[in-house]
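$ ./design --mode recover --in tokens.txt
reading tokens...
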């Protein structure tokens, strides 16, 4: 699916829309999505994990790809 094309089609449809009822329903949907705590936000726990990860990077408390692959190979025999 070409998302950009679908957006343009929806915009064209919306510009030509004359039914007030549909416009109001679309507005309600937009407001509901904008007010939703799940929309464009992350949880406090996710935020804490991200901050912890960034702190690990700052403190050079990381592993190289090779180190991770060696550990996986050793642990799981892969």
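writing sequence...
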């Amino acid at each position: 699916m070409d998302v950009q094309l679908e957006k343009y089609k929806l915009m064209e449809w919306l510009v030509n829309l004359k039914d007030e009822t549909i416009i109001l329903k679309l507005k309600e949907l937009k407001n509901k999505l904008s007010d939703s705590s799940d929309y464009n936000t992350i949880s406090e726990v996710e935020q804490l994990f991200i901050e912890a990860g960034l702190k690990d990077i700052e403190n050079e408390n990381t592993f190289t790809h090779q180190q991770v692959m060696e550990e996986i190979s050793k642990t799981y025999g892969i």
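exit 0
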